[in-house]
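Reviewer comment 2.1 asked that we show a complete input and output for one of the modelled complexes. We chose the FE2/S2 (inorganic) cluster case, as it is the one discussed in the main text.
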Amino acid sequence: MNSSVTLEWKAVCKVDEILPGTGVGVRLPEGQAALFRTRDGQLHALDNMDPFSRANVISRGLLGSLGGTRVVASPLYKQHFCLETGKCLEDETVSLTVYPVRLRGELVEVAVG
Amino acid sequence: MGFAFTLFNSWQAETVKGDIPMTKQKVLLVGHGMVGQRFLEALADRGGLDHYDVTILCAESRPAYDRVGLTRYFTERDADALSLVPEGFMAQPGLTLKLSTRVREIDRDARVVITEAGERLDYDKLVLATGSYPFVPPIDGNDRPNCFVYRTLDDLDEIIAAADQARIGTVVGGGLLGLEAAKALHDLGLETHVVEFAPRLMAVQVDDLGGGLLKDKIEALGVTVHTNTGTRAIVDGEQHRHRMDFGEDRHLETDIIVFSAGIRPEDSLARACGLEVGERGGVVIDDYCVTSDPDIFAIGEVALWQGRIFGLVAPGYQMAETAAARLCADSEPSFQGADMSTKLKLMGVDVASVGDAHGQTPGARSAVFFDQSTGVYKKVVVSECGKKLLGAVLVGDANDYGNLLQLCLNRIDLPGEAAALIAPAAGDAPMLGADALPDSAQICSCNNVSKGALCAAIDDGATTVGDLKACTKASATCGGCAALVKQVLDSELAKRGVEVNNHVCEHFPYSRQEIYHLVRVGEIKTFDELLEKHGSGDGCDICKPLAASVLASCWNDYVLSKPHAGLQDTNDYFLGNMQRDGTYSIVPRVPGGEITPDKLIVLGEVAKKYDLYTKITGGQRVDLFGARVDQLPEIWKILVDAGFETGHAYGKSLRTVKSCVGSTWCRYGVKDSVGTAIQVEERYKGLRSPHKIKMAVSGCTRECAEAQSKDVGVIATDKGWNLYVCGNGGMRPRHADLLASDLSDEQLIRTIDRFLMFYIRTADRLQRTSVWLENLEGGLDYLKQVVLEDSLGIGEELEAQMQQVIDTYQCEWKTTVEDPQAVKRFKHFVNDDVADDNLHYVRERGQRRPAYEHERIELVQQEG
Ligand code: SRM
Ligand SMILES: Cc1cc2nc3c(=O)[nH]c(=O)nc-3n(C[C@H](O)[C@H](O)[C@H](O)COP(=O)(O)OP(=O)(O)OC[C@H]3O[C@@H](n4cnc5c(N)ncnc54)[C@H](O)[C@@H]3O)c2cc1C
Ligand code: SF4
Ligand code: FES
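Response of the prediction step:
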């Protein structure tokens, strides 16, 4: 992340609105993101659009790890995307945008712009 | 000086080689593209940086990047990710990189190059790696704004910027690169056209039939292809920026034009300084990549060897190795030409060509397989004697590529008839296993990795494709060889006695049966507990749903209760099957296929209200498609209120019990098949199992319910029920086996209880009863002993476990719509109540269906 770019943080929900080990869809000023809370409480946000089906379904994918990489599996055709980098493990030409996320008190904030 | 001297001494002490200079000489590398970088790496590997100071003159503003992967930039927008220069590489002593520095002139007499900025740099050795430039056909108007080429990251930046204001994009040229550019435009959301002068696409790689098929496939993806079309002029358009005039009143309006009509060697420097160049361009080199001036090398796409230019990266890499070796006074390797076989996935369509694809070798014969309905075209070219493979073309299915390439490259005698190589039943084709390949076989042509090199890496401890990629570079470039690399890995690991296990995934070193036992015996109630006691890591999309299923088979908790929710595949989480556009289907249970008119009316009303696509399924019920996730609870509320229950169409669980009308109406019916079907369906509904379970009950031997194709099939006779098991339709149909005859109602149920529970206990993940039985040691006889004779003494236990599941049944949809907390989860956005705005539909035969990709682009344009 380029530190000279000023990020605009947008509060999207309370952390307990996301069950640990699942994700939710988030509406952003432009587009949508998938916001995940891992079993151990880490937060990650990626594009919600599955590049393989072009459907906005990534938030409904299953979380897990593959060889130490934290991933979400697309619910449609099951490709895995790294939660940290957005890279698709099955097809290196494809990746999802990653949005910075932070927790302020109870609120989850996603950086846009 | 002293430093260089000592170095030289110590080096000379151990080897005796040709004439390597005593003091450090100056090498200038012109062009820092893919091949230039490989040259630097090869030189460094050979210790060449001890003897040469290398200055790299790079016209682009970025150091070498992966041009082969250029198109990735459209999706990733990350130039750094494409970089080919390892971190710290340029910091090595002896390397100086000058970015944005274009060479204007070479003065061979003075041994000096002059940059565009006027800087003069002298050299002892000069390496030309200037690649090629895109050819832009001489069409009037080809220099209008928004006309681009497709070669550098800067080109892509310009295209991306222009696409923002554009609706239609057109690529001139239907070759490999043109199609790649078309895909990029298509992905940018533009209505995309490809204009090709030749009568077919990819004229270099494929023949007419293959090209035609490729065209069909690409058009099916929403790209319009115009073959046999030459552009006369480009002028102002009426609706769009440009109008491309094709003559005879034909024209096309477009906002963006990308020229991709071939490449030409970037040999202008060489020409101007009098180096020998080919008639149609390219700097002439010998087997050592030396040009007509002994102090100047040329490598990569700019070089012409035996009258040939190589427009692929693999031959360029071989030239880089050769030139580096030569500078280190090694005569090995020399450049001996290269194979131009390619395998690509263009817009999702597999295309491959091997060797002499057009059958130009004298006496060559070919065999063709063409299936227009599946879109597969394969051709093999064999030698006159019929024993050797000379070339091949594959479109639509390139799985045979590795096999064919190896046969061709290693000139292996064909294992059978040539036609059998491409015969549709791949299972019967004479496959060339990884085992059959000699160690010298080249597995990865981009990086020149042989089977022997892979074996060596495996000996050194590589156990995954990732390991092999990291230490040999195999499959690191185009990826075309990945499947073959994996085959070699698997067969070599097996040879080395590495056990191939049946563990469900990397998180649990157990099979499904073992996990089932661990859960039952250890009374494990949650995934977290299972993971903590018996697994590692975070779990994944394999083991989580598996655990959820096993937990449900054993304890039958509400699947969406907190500890289980995150384990469910989306279908189970949202209690519906996800469709291709991300919406869901709704399948209420219709036990035995019997439904009252009132209930049918409710289904009709719901479908009408929510505009759901309605279809009678193959399982005797009604499927309502196209419900958005946020609509699911309200729709199901209406259905539950009307007395419907979930049909578990999403679960690995009982689907339907199909029935024929039986003695209720039918003149031949000997028993009440509908009544029994309903009784059986009510009993086992909601039962979670390794895979889905289907059943049927027929009222007589005419078998109208097709019971013998089901996991459990019941057929009435005048003496009782005949019970068939382990039938399957689907991908590999299997006729069911007769397990027991002439059963009473009560015996029937007890036998099915035991059979199903035994299956649930012992089957593998996603193993239907048919495959399970085929793998069950002792087969049908053993199954009969266990289920009918209770040879294991577990009969009562199995019945009790089944009874527990039956007693704890709940309709998941009823539970869900009654629980406000659960309903909350069915929102598309956590922070907004609106629905997904990316759903687009067209109407067909009076109903709604999701738009296909090409329709979607039009719809978005109309809407926006
Ligand atoms: C709707 C339906 C087709 C139809 O329009 O008629 C259908 C639709 C699907 N089938 Fe089927 N199958 C349907 C009857 C069948 C039948 C016929 C039957 O049951 O009489 C078969 C062959 C019989 C059999 O299973 O042995 C059948 C064999 C399959 C298979 C292959 C199974 C196999 O063992 O080879 C799959 C894939 C799988 O389950 O892994 C599958 C999977 C699917 C899925 C779930 C694919 C998916 O993951 O999205 C489809 C989604 C359904 C949905 O969204 O609601 N479907 N499918 C039928 C629903 C029946 C029902 O009321 O529940
Ligand atoms: C989109 C795309 C997809 C491709 N896909 C494949 C594929 O799948 N498989 C495959 O094998 N090949 C593929 N190729 C071809 C492959 O990229 C080339 O074969 C390879 O890049 C050639 O390397 P090179 O170093 O010879 O030339 P380049 O990589 O073009 O590098 C030449 C460099 O020299 C610089 N230069 C030129 N003139 C001067 C000068 N006067 N002064 C200083 N610098 C100069 C240029 O700016 C450039 O940076 C693809 C190419 C493209 C564009
Ligand atoms: S046959 Fe294939 S396409 Fe048709 S419903 Fe079944 S899974 Fe879907
Ligand atoms: S053949 Fe291209 S990466 Fe191996």
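Chain B touches chain A through 46 residues (CB under 8 Å). We note this here for comparison with the apo prediction described in Section 3.2.
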